[in-house]
Amino acid sequence: MKNQGLFVSLDIGTTSIKVVVAEYINNQLNIIGVGNELSKGLNRGVIVDIDETVESIKRAVEQAEKKANISISEVIVGIPGNQISIEPCHGMYGVENENKEITDKDVQNVFQAARVRSLPPEREIISVIPEEFIVDGFDGIRDPRGMIGVRLELYASMITGPKTIIHNIKRCVERAGLRIRDMVVQPLAIASIAMNKGERDFGTILIDLGGGQTTASVLHDDQLKFVYVDPEGGSLVTKDISVILNTTMENAEHTKREFGYAIPEDTSDDEFFPVAVIGKEEPVKVDEKYLSEIIEARLVQIFENVKQALDRVEARELPGGIIITGGGSAIPGVIELAEEIFEVNVKHYIPEQMGMRNPIFATSLGLIKYIGEQDDIYQVAKDRLPSQPKAQTQTYVQTQKVVPLQQKQEKAVKTEVHAPTDYSDAEAPKKNSFFDQAKQFIQSIFE
What DSSP designation does 390 have? Predict the structure, then answer.
């Protein structure tokens, strides 16, 4: 582990909210507190009721605080893969130091340059993940600090997401009395703990079978390349059992966990178990094979949808196969069913930490490990931008004004937005520079 200290992760899931407190000492991950609370206010991975979600977060945090005997003030938050967009970005910056030695400030500036691009107003930057630095044409550099150069370039991957989802998560965390230490896309977090370096380099598929939705992601060259979200998960399996057997969701969940199996051929129609049915005083006997057929039907539908999405990018040809985790993968027989449908090697990831040996904690532990293993260069870049910048519409940038391109094309009434400067318009220099002349020329076009 590259970082030492205390880390707290917050996994806001559809069925449950998990808070994990861990510390790194001598490169060892020690779990010192866990909070697991029933989730309210979410639907298929998306927050639909802020008040309910805030209360659930508070209860989960209180559980973790009592077990860890600490006060939690900041957390690492996972961002779901819904409508995540991954695109390359490039930044270039001239080294400012007189002796041309690259410093932290130069790294921060080139990251800032890479983030300056046009975004739709409904999207927001989640993170910029560096791939390589280039110093005066020499590429493949991981950390350029201390080197001598004139031109510093950065090639990176920019991950953006829907502003509504990100804003709602931020608002819930803040209203719960917490600060956000970092935000990490959940597929990246899980991959950091469920895959080894070779699997991330050569290419592997990760399937997170959660309660409200199923997320399939592809990692290759140690980078997140593709994300697909199917709005079906383990909770729909429970709902199918509830509807078909005419029982409550609580009874259906208990039946699924105690007697469920994903492959009907491996069960018996001579083994029965009681199910409390609505409208009947006595429990009804149901055989294992009938229950298994209900479970299999929904899982096959989920896996077929994921398979079609993966085939569009030819992901099943990658040598790493598939790794499945998440609460829905705890049903016996899921891995065998997945191998039958995907026709590749499938592995099941379950955390190994004591008291955490359940796939529902994969995201929580992954958030901690992802941040704990980040290079120092990541922290240097993040310190410059403690909060995410607002999405920008496509613009013409001038010395003092920002004029939206759409206004120029439609010849609408101009609305000038003052860019942040160290002086007001009244104190601005009066000298007519090249940019001032360009501004006057553009204004003359409008007139």
Answer: P
Q: Identify the bridge partners of residue 35 per DSSP, sorted by sequence position.
A: 19
Q: Specify the pLDDT at position 149.
A: 92
Q: Are 235 and 44 in contact (CB under 8 A)?
A: no
Contact criterion met (CB below 8 Å) for 256 and 238: yes
Query: Please, what are the averages of pLDDT over each run of 10 residues along the chain (447 residues)?
Result: 80 94 81 92 87 95 94 95 90 89 92 87 91 93 92 93 94 95 94 94 96 94 93 94 95 94 91 91 92 96 97 95 95 96 96 88 94 83 52 32 34 33 37 51 51
- The Cα–Cα gap between 34 and 61 comes to 8
Burial class (CB in 10 A: 0-12, 13-18, 19+), 302: buried
Residues 6+ apart with CB under 8 A from 384: 108, 109, 111, 112
Characterize 344-377 residue by residue with b for buried, 16 or more Cβ atoms within 10 angstroms of its Cβ, and e for exposed.
bebbebebeeeebeebbbbbbbbbbbbbbebeeb
- What domains can be seen in the chain, in order of their start residue? 5-82+165-195+356-381 (3.30.420.40), 85-161 (3.30.1490.110), 228-348 (3.30.420.40), 395-446 (no CATH)
Give the pLDDT confidence score for residue 377 in this predicted structure: 83
- The DSSP bridge pattern shows strands 151-162 and 85-94 to be antiparallel
Query: For residue 439, what pLDDT is reported?
Result: 52
Stretch (H or E) spanning 63: helix 50-68
Spatial distance between the Cα atoms of 245 and 197, rounded to a whole number of angstroms? 45
The rounded distance, in Å, linking the Cα atoms of 282 and 380 is 65
Count Cβ atoms within 10 A of the Cβ of residue 115 and give its class: 0-12 exposed, 13-18 middle, 19 or more buried: buried
Residue 121 to residue 163: CA distance in whole angstroms:
8
Query: What is the reported pLDDT for 395?
Result: 30
Is residue 61 within 8 A of residue 176, CB to CB? The reply is yes
Query: Which of 8, 112, 14 is CA-nearest to residue 64?
Result: 8
| Residue 424, beta-bridge partner list | none
Residue owning tokens 């659930």: 56
Amino acid type, 443: Q
To which H or E segment does residue 256 belong? helix 249-259
What's the chain's Rg over C-alpha atoms? 26
Q: For residues 140 and 155, what is the distance between their CA atoms, to the nearest angstrom? A: 10
